[in-house]
Design a protein that fits this description.
Order of helices and strands: HEEHHHHHHH
Number of helices: 8
Largest sheet: 2 strands, antiparallel
Strand order of the largest sheet: 1-2
Strand content: under 5%
Amino acid sequence: MKKKSALTSIVIVAILIISILIGFAAQMIFDSIDKGRYPRPETEYLVEGGESVTIRHMVEQYAEAYGVPEYLVYAVIRTESGFDVNAVSKRGAIGLMQMTPDTFVWMQTKTKESLSAEAIYSPNINIKYGTYYLSYLYYQFGDWNLVLAAYNAGPGNVTSWLEDSRYSDGEGHLTNIPFEETRNYIEKVNDAVEVYKRLYYNY
């Protein structure tokens, strides 16, 4: 009887171990699939000065320089362009972070740079200015959801919404966003943020 009980215990333990290993293997497979859909690209591009740098390095560099979470930069890039460096929207937004030429020119008044109009097509410059713009918006609004709303709909719209009781609680938070595109955009970026956190940042 004791032998049978011991054998039963061994079988149960073995089944538990196998189940854990299968679960672990399945999670690794799912994570691998997700990493393909939510990448941190190692594709290299030539930057100013002739150096070859990966998109991942660019994101890390400018996220640190401007105090923006890396996972947010990746989530914005994925949502905006799907990591297509040549992406151009119907509204004329360009590159990985889909900056408009007007915003690019205006942001140079803050950085004190004078770059050519074509520079916005450079992945390095596009990520630099897109990340700096996120940082600038955070300095203005102090909330990442408001930053995303402003990135999509423009800071002027967000400011007016915050001043309107139909859309704001009067305490600096939006309770309703009148643009469906902006509502969907914030949701998509935040969904991507959660995946990036889980896959790469141990959240």
